[in-house]
Amino acid sequence: AEELNAAGGERAELTSTTDSSQAGRTPFNAIIDAFEASSVERSVMRAVLARRRLDEATTDPKAWVASIIPSDDARPSSRGDEPDGEVGCEIPEAALRGISVVQLEAIYEEACELCVSQGWTASAGPQAGKKLDPSDMNLYDLVSHHVAPKTLATRRSMVETVAKGPQPPAWFVSHWWGEPVKDFIACLKQHLKLRHLSAATTHYWVCAYALRQHRLDEELGGVGLDAMDSPFNRALRIADGTLTVADKSGVVFSRVWCAFESYATLTQRIEILHDLAIAENEGAKLVSDGPTAQDGASGASRSLALAWKAVRESEFPTDQLMGVVTDFSLSEADSSRPEDKAAILEAVGDARHVFDATMRARFGGVVLRELYKHEVAFKRWVEDLRASRLRKLSGDFPRDQENSRHPRVKPASDAVIRALPETKIKDLRLGYGTVASVHAPIFRQVISSGQLLSLDLARSQVPDIVGVALAEALLDKRCVLTMLNLTGNKCGDATGEAFDKSLGENTSLRVLNLSSNPVAKSTAIRKRLVDNHGSRVGFA
After folding, report:
1. Which among 278, 371, 398, 487 has the fewest CB atoms less than 10 Å away?
2. What are the tens digits of pLDDT across the range 106-139?
3. Helices 375-387 & 319-327, crossing angle to 10 degrees?
4. Cα dihedral angle (327, 16, 451, 42), rounded to 10 degrees?
5. Nearest to residue 148, comparing CAs of 178, 377, 139, 346?
């Protein structure tokens, strides 16, 4: 696999067997390449894709993008981009067939009424052929009884049936068709709530609604499917991130497409987000990639928002994810179409062990508060972390007071920290751990070398010697660290003095939080840091 530096971030190509010069060979991928080369925000790209005809760009995508960027068509609308006109249209590019939660709820409501009036039966699984209760309806049922019949005459997708024009997705959804539709919608609604998104104008790419069910071979390419050129990957390229919706049995983690979608998300540019949701008690729980808008509501600082995120995520069920961390293997994953699995395995090629390690490493961070107690499993996970292509790791140990922490927290923290220089981690959150003086040279290395972009060691007993090392690492011209959260540690005057010196020369660090440290109580040093460096330094 190959890494390309572009537009302020890294994008890792999935395949080691396909010549990277052939990536983006379809006209749509060439257009996305042109947008990425221009470094415009994805919201701008989606605004253009919703308003302009793609055939305008087929001759010279780069020139087309360059001509549009200054125009009104490149300005996202606060009211959304729904065009005027009648419902029902043709959207040739499958990647532009996102769907809103408002549209999803309308489809589901109609389906529930028909389920009762027509006496639908379950279409798959152990209940196949038995009377179907609307609350148990899954996508296999919905597609069989409603989507397929409703789109038969036009042979279009469900999105084309309910939309007025292209609906570029802000989020890609990875999920298993077997979860109840009501649970799926509950997860999306919770996602909207936490990220402060509009139910009417935020579009999600969901394959069952986006693809033309009567023309799947045409849409997917049949036996000749190229996973990197599939509508799944094209849609992912224009989204802000992927939302993985986990079913209560954890089947989603054994599906080959779901694994491919997660890996593609995790190894693209670091700003691409990966959220995880699961339905629970008529609602849903969410693990977010970074703090959400709701976590930071009412102007909360980033450190406080991260604390709220940790509290919220402590209720996320971990049983299913522990199995992923210990047992995931792409070779063992399932697919409804054997040709799809073959295509994905071909795209991954010889990097299959890296794929597996990345998946296990990603979900290990989510369950760190449980995983660290299992010595053998945790040791394997650290090895996966080293072998993976994971860019972001966020995990908290249990939120216990310092004097009551589990004895495994100290060696587990040490193992993760010592592995850092051998990983591709650029964004690290390790909360409620144990950082010791011996770790000073390691943190100095991963910051001064330019590896880390963001570091959060909230309430991890960071001592003064490590605080000084972090400050001194900022003086290296290779340093690219932008955020450093040291809330709730043991950093004293020496740390404050060191940061006062280094921040005068460093230009990359935008946020330094030293709240709830001894240095925060030192009036003179605190005043000097604020006077000299302004809003870059926080004590709240």
Report:
1. 398
2. 999 999 999 999 999 999 888 899 999 999 999 9
3. 60
4. -100
5. 139
Sign of CA dihedral 365, 368, 369, 371: positive
Tokens of 73: 């068509």
β-strand partners of 138: 180
Model's pTM, two decimal places? 0.89
DSSP string covering 188-229, please? HHHHHHHHT--TTT--EE-HHHHS-GGGHHHHH-GGG--GGG
Question: What is the distance in angstroms between the CA of the first residue and the CA of the last residue of the chain?
Answer: 43
Q: Compute the distance between CA of residue 134 and CA of residue 116 in angstroms, rounded to an integer.
A: 7
Separation CA 456–CA 450 (nearest Å): 16
- The low-confidence residues of the chain, meaning pLDDT below 70, are 1-26, 72-74, 76-84, 222-225, 297-300, 402
**19-58 pLDDT per residue, tens:** 333 444 568 999 999 998 988 899 999 999 999 988 888 7
- 3 state SS of 174: strand
SS3 104: helix
Structure tokens at 255: 């599906």
SS3 484: strand
d(CA 424, CA 277): 25
142 contacts 206 by C-beta, under 8 angstroms: no
Q: Where are the beta strands (DSSP E) in 463-510?
A: 483-485
Our measurement of the distance from residue 16's CA atom to the centroid of its chain's CA atoms, rounded to an integer in Å, reads 23
Token pair belonging to 31 = 């257009």
